[in-house]
């Protein structure tokens, strides 16, 4: 059998790999003497040794081979590295290929630049130890495991010429999110999408334990991967020359298979695409390959001890000498010239221009981002002639708007959701495009097609990962989810928000499209689901992030939802959270009023109040269901206390409650006081946990008079009003709160309390007997005062 690599190419590739490994060790250990021009001393070594050696040499090996394939085949390829802390590897490679110096000119290709490269790694105000936004060519934050493959597939969707090489670490492979993401191949259309080449890197160990997939045997592993729908090609060993030849052959076989799959598929139409068996590589190499074999009499290479820093104690000269010998084993003087520059005979192996993986624009999606073609949302508006004159399903109307967004952006916009698009009443989108599906079909299936653009799989992790990969490579998307279960991706949201925060200050990374969430089937409108489906806490989680990144919207009706959604889809580099119910509910504002209200973020609803500039009380609301309860309470109070003066304030942009120095959307104190007064009681009905409103307003003049009602972790399968009653945010409670807090109503309080308990008893007895709300609640409708 003819070797894939001729002797000279093999020699140069091996040298390239040695150079990357040398730079990796230098980053972990050295702060000076980068070329070992003098004997290594303790003062040349960093005091704090942070980093991960064990996985990185395998990542370096793969990167070297991908470079060879890119050059020989003129590939458009990016590299996603799942092993979390393999950061020094891609930093080393982008330095060798020149990408790093182009972006960071102070890290030039010289001895001085190499010294800075080493010194900055895991150094205060330097760079992180993992693959991070600062790393050229990265779209995958290495600080958390489990999402490399879903990011890779997200990047490949609608990128027909792109190949995403994705290294899955065998520790990462034990996570639930990664285990699910193998199924992404059932959603990849070989006609219209690119390809993902998974490379399962088995080096046998995590931090302190063996990895499962490294210990089940090749037969079982092959069966597992074939069961997922892949054709696995195994490469294993430890002798470099044989490993280079074997990996090169496997890589060529896989790339040939990918091109053949695409060629055959592209001879047909996208809607006729079949599910192919995509190739993958299982790469088994020693943990800490080429590093110290033994340290202090204990084996290191090929064990868990190689995971982080194999040599960590330099109080004695023995370890200093061992580190020096280790670094000298790479023969750096053969690889770099006297000035510290990578020798041309090896440097010439790398791709050039945008073919370098560090400079591929798909790994810097803001360079490719184009604005969405947007229909005008007003054409979908509800015809509201007077406030509360009819009901509508907010999200069903939103679905019609998203349908037209989809139709006008069929190669750059997708909708993602965990089997809930129709449940959240967005199914009008299917009129523009069905759901993506390349697995088997049955006669009962509906709205499935190989070229569908609605991405549905029952894994919030998967939807989030796909969407992130899609956004990070320059496209747009929308994620719909049940409110209670968006928490499943809390940590993924964290990482994406951190990515956005970090890249916001990086001029070389232009802004990407915002990550847009719609949270529906929310806490207050659960027809048949109980306590498990009731949790509005994602609001709190998001609000903790940096203010320049997060936005939270609680539209009270359909027209406000349309205005907010249009704004969010046009925005850049944010995480936008929209919370809106799917059940039929009352409509309040015409489209022009809705736009003005959403632009302001919060406002006085003059039509709902009475008393002008001198109210007895401010009744505030944020969220669709709380808005209904506040307005119902207003009607009760007009009956209970005919001369009451009430101001109704609705908040649609939650972050407007903060001060402008805390959030860009924050109201200044004068405007806040104009809405909420400086000294009057404020009864605030809030969609989520009450504490977040206090947190956002604690610096305001009138904060001590704020009384916030919201979710307090009470729920069951029950009626809409009973959910409010269980959490003390019902209209009866809000009306009692007002009477108890307005000083001039002190004489009404005993009567009001008795009335409240009578109403609650009547409510409880009725719902227990009849299974739905009182007629006066079911049939309630807003009536302006002149309609009385």
Description:
The chain has 25 helices and 22 strands. It has a 6-stranded parallel beta sheet with strand order 12-9-13-14-16-15, sandwiched between helices. 36% of the residues lie in helices and 13% in strands. It is α/β, with parallel strands linked by helices and 788 residues long. It has 3 domains: 7-364, Thiamin diphosphate (ThDP)-binding fold, Pyr/PP domains (Rossmann fold); 378-383 and 390-586, Thiamin diphosphate (ThDP)-binding fold, Pyr/PP domains (Rossmann fold), CATH 3.40.50.970; 603-787, Rossmann fold. α2 (56-73) runs parallel beside α3, α19 (624-640) packs across α23 (731-741) and α23 runs antiparallel to α24 (749-770). The termini are far apart. Belongs to the XFP family. It comes from Luteibacter pinisoli. GO terms for molecular function: aldehyde-lyase activity.
């Amino acid at each position: 059998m003819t070797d894939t690599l001729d002797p000279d190419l093999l020699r140069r590739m091996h040298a390239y790999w040695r150079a990357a490994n040398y730079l990796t060790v230098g980053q972990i250990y050295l702060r000076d003497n980068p070329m070992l021009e003098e004997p290594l001393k303790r003062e040349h070594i960093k005091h704090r040794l942070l980093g991960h050696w064990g996985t990185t040499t395998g990542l370096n090996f793969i990167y070297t081979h991908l470079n060879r394939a890119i050059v020989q085949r003129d590939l458009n390829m990016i590299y996603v590295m799942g092993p979390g802390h393999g950061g020094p590897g891609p930093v080393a490679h982008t330095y060798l290929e020149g990408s790093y110096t182009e972006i960071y000119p102070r890290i030039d290709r010289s001895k001085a630049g190499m010294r800075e490269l080493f010194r900055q790694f895991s150094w205060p105000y330097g760079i992180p130890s993992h693959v991070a936004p600062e790393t050229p060519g990265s779209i995958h934050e290495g600080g958390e495991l489990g999402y490399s493959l879903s990011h890779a597939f997200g990047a490949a969707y609608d990128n027909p010429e792109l190949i995403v090489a994705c290294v899955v670490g065998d520790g990462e492979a034990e996570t639930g999110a990664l285990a699910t993401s193998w199924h992404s191949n059932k959603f990849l259309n070989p006609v219209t999408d690119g390809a993902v080449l998974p490379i399962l890197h088995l080096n046998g160990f995590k931090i302190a334990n063996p990895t499962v997939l490294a210990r089940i045997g090749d037969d079982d592993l092959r069966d597992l991967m074939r069961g997922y729908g892949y054709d696995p090609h195994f490469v294993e060993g430890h002798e470099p020359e044989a490993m280079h030849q074997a990996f090169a052959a496997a890589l060529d076989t896989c790339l040939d298979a990918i091109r053949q799959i695409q060629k055959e598929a592209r001879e047909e139409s996208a809607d006729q695409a079949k599910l192919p068996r995509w190739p993958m590589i299982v790469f088994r190499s020693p943990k800490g390959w080429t590093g110290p074999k033994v340290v202090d009499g204990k084996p290191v290479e090929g064990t868990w001890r190689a995971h982080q820093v194999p040599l960590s104690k330099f109080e004695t000269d023995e370890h200093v000498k061992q580190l020096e010998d280790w670094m000298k084993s790479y023969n750096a003087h053969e690889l770099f010239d006297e000035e510290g520059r990578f020798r041309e005979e090896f440097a010439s192996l790398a791709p050039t221009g945008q073919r370098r993986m560090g400079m591929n624009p798909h790994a810097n999606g803001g360079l490719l981002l184009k604005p969405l073609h947007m229909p005008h949302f007003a054409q979908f508006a509800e015809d509201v002639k007077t406030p509360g004159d009819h009901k509508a399903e907010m999200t069903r109307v939103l679905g019609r708007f998203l349908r037209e967004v989809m139709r006008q952006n069929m190669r750059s916009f997708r909708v993602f959701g965990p089997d809930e698009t129709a449940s959240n009443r967005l199914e009008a989108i299917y009129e523009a495009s069905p759901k993506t599906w390349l697995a088997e079909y049955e006669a009962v299936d509906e709205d499935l097609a190989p070229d569908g653009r609605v991405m549905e799989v029952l894994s919030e992790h998967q939807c989030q990962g796909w969407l992130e990969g899609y956004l990070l490579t320059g496209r747009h998307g929308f994620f719909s989810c049940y409110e209670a279960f968006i928490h499943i991706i809390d940590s993924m949201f964290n990482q994406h928000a951190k990515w956005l925060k970090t890249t916001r200050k990086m001029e070389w990374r232009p802004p990407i499209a915002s990550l847009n969430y719609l949270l529906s089937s929310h806490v207050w409108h659960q027809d048949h689901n109980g306590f498990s489906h009731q949790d509005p806490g994602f609001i709190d989680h998001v609000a903790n992030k940096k203010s320049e990144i997060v936005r939270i919207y609680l539209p009270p009706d359909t027209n406000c939802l349309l205005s907010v959604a249009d704004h969010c889809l046009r925005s850049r580099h944010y995480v936008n959270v929209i919370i809106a119910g799917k059940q039929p509910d009352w409509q309040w504002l015409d489209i022009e009023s809705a736009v003005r209200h959403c632009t302001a973020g919060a406002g006085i609803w003059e039509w709902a109040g009475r008393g002008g500039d001198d109210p007895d009380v401010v009744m505030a609301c944020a969220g669709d269901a709380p808005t209904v309860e506040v307005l119902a309470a207003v009607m009760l109070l007009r009956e209970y206390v005919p001369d009451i003066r009430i101001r109704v304030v609705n908040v649609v942009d939650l972050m407007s409650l903060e001060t402008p120095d805390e959030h860009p959307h924050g109201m200044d104190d004068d405007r806040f006081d104009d809405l909420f007064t400086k000294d009057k009681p404020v009864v605030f009905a809030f969609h989520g946990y009450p504490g977040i409103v206090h947190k956002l307003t604690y610096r305001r003049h009138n904060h001590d008079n704020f009384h916030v009602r919201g979710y307090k972790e009470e729920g069951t399968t029950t009626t809409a009003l009973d959910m409010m009653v269980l959490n003390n945010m019902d209209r009866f409670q809000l009306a009692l709160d007002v009477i108890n807090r307005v000083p001039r109503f002190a004489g009404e309080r005993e009567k009001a309390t008795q009335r409240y308990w009578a109403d609650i008893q009547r409510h409880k007895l009725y719902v227990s007997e009849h299974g739905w709300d009182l007629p006066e609640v079911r049939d309630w409708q807003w009536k302006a005062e002149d309609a009385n």
